[in-house]
Amino acid sequence: xxxxxxxxxxxxxxxxxxxxxxxxxxxxxxxxxxxxxxxxxxxxxxxxxxxxxxxxxxxxxxxxxxxxxxxxxxxxxxxxxx
Length: 82
What we know:
82 residues, two-stranded antiparallel sheet, 5% strand
């Protein structure tokens, strides 16, 4: 990952990511974000998992799920620093 995730992301943003990912069926990634609510040191790992999900999406995933993950990734990228 070329960018560093800011671990000061608000809880609201993390909850949003958790909810969106869980709603579209990406439960493993959602669990990572949920865990990062309690331990912010886990946030970079959760962001990397989301980034991998977006960049390596499978064609058997629904288009809506892939788009939701991509939009969540874009939203969280605002908090990345170079």
